[in-house]
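Annex B. Sample input.
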Amino acid sequence: MPFFLFPMLGGQRSVANLASMKALVLKEKNSPPQFLEREMPTPEKDTVLVNVKAASLNHRDVWIMKGQYAGLSYPIVPGSDGAGWYEGQEVILQPGSGWGGDERCQGNGYQILGLPKDGTIAESVAVLRSQLFPKPSHLSMVEAAALPLAGLTAYRVLFVRCQARPGEKLLVTGAGGGVALFCVQFALKAGLEVYVTSGDESKIERVRTIGALGGANYKSDGWVDALKKMAGGFDVIVDGAGGADFGSLLKIANPGARIGIYGGTNGAVPNLSPQAIFWKQLSILGATMGSDRDFSAMLDFVNRHKIVPIIDSVFELADGAKAFERMEKGQQFGKIVLNIS
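Annex B, continued. Sample output.
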């Protein structure tokens, strides 16, 4: 349920009274973010100022730093995820706005915080009131800030697009990233049998400790056969990498399986066999982010099951460049969060 349906409370200092704020700022392409004093955002029509207490990183922020998006101009404050205060209440931010009236896909007016407008890695951010939702009460600000973009994407690809059901076998590739780990956490609570891939054996073991039944290292020979031996085949596969290994996923997809794609870290998929798709009656389903309805449903799921995001590390805002460096190196297991005091 969006925050604007809730009553307003007093008692929190209004950020509108501040002339400037501290923020991480990307000043030019391929340069790390700088911790700077920046002018307070000016609310436009239908927008409000939120006092941000924590924000988290996504690979999207690194790609913005590298200038890999159209319509990008510097300087800009990155960040799509955030939690904080508005009018005395704790809020969590829906990263996207302008989805449109078709739940099947976003419209042309859809935008995500952090591009083209300033994002959440600052003491204050201007957002539409419709982007404010009540923060899950069982989560701290740091934990809540880890949830929005990755949690929303995971919920949509798993339950809206792939229609995952209890008892099905799920394979999640690239365990360690934010979306992948939320897929694991959500699927376990929904009663699926979960397996993973990773290029790091220690990450596979860590996912096993939270309930995954097994996994395989995609850097090793025979990883596809190893997964087939473990599980037999998969009813749902969630992938965020694409690339040359994607075709191998078709070999371990059960007839009628759904394959959800939310990212393409490894680039285009070469030599994809249409025979494997039509003979097995496979569905390949794209997903990114989600609507307000999806975000509300995701929060309901998190609240109902008391899910706590897996946090890799927490940095202070002034150390934001170190957080970006960790994200860029792909070292993380879970979300990298910035504490904004």
